[in-house]
Amino acid sequence: MTTLQFPEGFEWGTATASYQIEGAANEGGRGQSIWDAFSKTPGKVLEGHTGDKAVDHYHLYKEDVKLMANMGLKHYRLSISWPRVLPTGFTDHVNEEGIAFYNNLIDELLANGITPIVTLYHWDLPLALQTEYDGLLGGKVLIDAFAAYARLCFQRFGDRVKQWLTLNEPWCSAILGYGNGHMAPGRKHKCKTETYEAAHNLLLCHAHAVHVYRTEFQAAQDGKIAITLNCDWREPKPTEDPAEAAQNAEAAERALLFDLGWFADPVYFGDYPEVMKTRLGDRLPRFTPEESALLKGSSDFFGLNHYGTAYIEPSDAYLAGAECGLEGEIWEDVGVKQSSDDAWLRTDMGWNAVPWGFRKLLMWIHARYAPAGGIIVTENGCAVADDNQAVAAKDYFRVNFYRGYLAEMHKAITEFGVDVRGYYAWSFIDNYEWAFGYTKRFGLHWVNYETMERMPKASAIWYGNVIRTNSLALEDEYNRKSPEGNAAVASAPVATSY
Ligand code: PNW
User: Fold this and answer.
1) d(CA 3, ligand 1 centre) in Å
2) How close is the Cα of 242 to the center of ligand 1, in Å?
3) Residue 480 lies in a domain
4) H, E, C per residue of the chain
5) Among protein residues, the one whose CA lies closest to atom 18 of ligand 1
6) Fewest C-beta in 10 Å: which of 2, 125, 341, 363?
7) Domain count of the chain?
8) Mind telling me the catalytic residues?
């Protein structure tokens, strides 16, 4: 029986985000966010789904914390809805009902032995900031508003919250919000400039919020603050031809720098990667020396969200990313073409499940940034077409997905010395998958969207066992079970959005 033991004190958790689970969109004094507007715009979200009700976590949070405690969860990543605490985005009007909701939730978690890690911005920008101040293009207004919002959260919750994440996946906010328009606010017609401006402003939002925490709160509250970045692994497309192999390797490295280096280089080195400066010229905003200094070293650990892997080769083709459902003019900036291996399993998103790609990404981050505070994987998981309760009860595909990814993470730690300190499964519960509405299920808990009834999937019980033992048993009852529904999942069409 092979059992992989994880380092003592390893932080195991699950993750969610406010707009995806809370619902109660028009209750408790909550203001509107860009996702309320986007989801109600015809044609933007599959089947016109909105987060109005989501999984009603706002009302059912106690039941949800009970489910967490039942599975043995010790850490839980949640996000605060900016418009629920500040309906207009600004601190001139604090919604005390919203503050009370998060106070109650945090207290309930702590009472059940669960430590919260809190994301400040997981994409639900107050709508007023979009309509009046151009959203993520809003420059100083946006940055000051975010710093003030962050300060309020540190003031009100920082006595109990000791781990903060400023932004979730700014790559998605910039590329999907301003590059191809697949996510709120859904812009794309000036993608060649706005994408980079949005990202630039987000980086400055992060840096200023961290500055507020470090100068006003960290000494007294003794917590940590970081940013969380998403990246798929980019594997050079295999080829027999040595010249082509070298070009593919260079293209894969460039893709990693455009995806992850875009944000991680400023946070760790104070500036964008050289290859981005060269290829984008004046379209890439520049940091002043003061901004650069504020950014450099602005993360107490490396927050990483990871989902899949793709082969990469160079290509100057317009719409180079189209094959992966990532169509859009913006892709010619990177100059790569993505593809998949027929042997790879696909999740219900059409994303490639390639566990070794996760290990290679962890190793790449370790080699380039050697991040102080280590890496905390703040999201990893898969969508499975388990909308039927019987399939969810077995959940072989998801268990095998996690088994593979955890085994490779273990290898990164033990064989390659990568400093990984935590792992959060996405997601605790089935929820609103953005432009895919409720059609994609990422949860460890199944939800009946009519009755809001919850049920732990087999993966919740299995993952609970990993948490309790701090180890991964490679030969348990799920091992090598033909993954129920795998055939359907493996041949799922490539996602048409994102
Ligand atoms: C992340 N991509 O989104 C988010 O943080 C979650 O809110 C979301 O539910 C989860 O992953 C699953 O999608 C992503 O296109 C969306 O590469 C798109 C991409 C990556 C992450």
Assistant:
1) 31
2) 35
3) no
4) CCEEECCCCCEEEEECCHHHHCCCCCCCCCCCEHHHHHHCCCCCCHHHCCCCCCCCHHHHHHHHHHHHHHCCCCEEEEECCHHHHCCCCCCCCCCHHHHHHHHHHHHHHHHCCCEEEEEEECCCCEHHHHHHHCHHHCHHHHHHHHHHHHHHHHHHHCCCCCEEEEEECHHHHHHHHHHCCCCCCCCCCCHHHHHHHHHHHHHHHHHHHHHHHHHHHHHHHCCEEEEEEECCEEEECCCCCHHHHHHHHHHHHHHHHHHHHHHHHHHHHCCCCHHHHHHHHHHCCCCCHHHHHHHCCCCCCEEEECCCEEEEEECCCCCCCHHHCCCCHHHHHCCEEEECCCCCEECCCCCEECHHHHHHHHHHHHHHHCCCCCEEEEECCCCCCCCCHHHHHHCHHHHHHHHHHHHHHHHHHHCCCCCEEEEEEECCCCCCCHHHHHHCCCCCEEECCCCCCEEECHHHHHHHHHHHHCEEECCCCCCCCCCCCHHHHHCCCCCCCC
5) 498
6) 2
7) 1
8) 169, 379
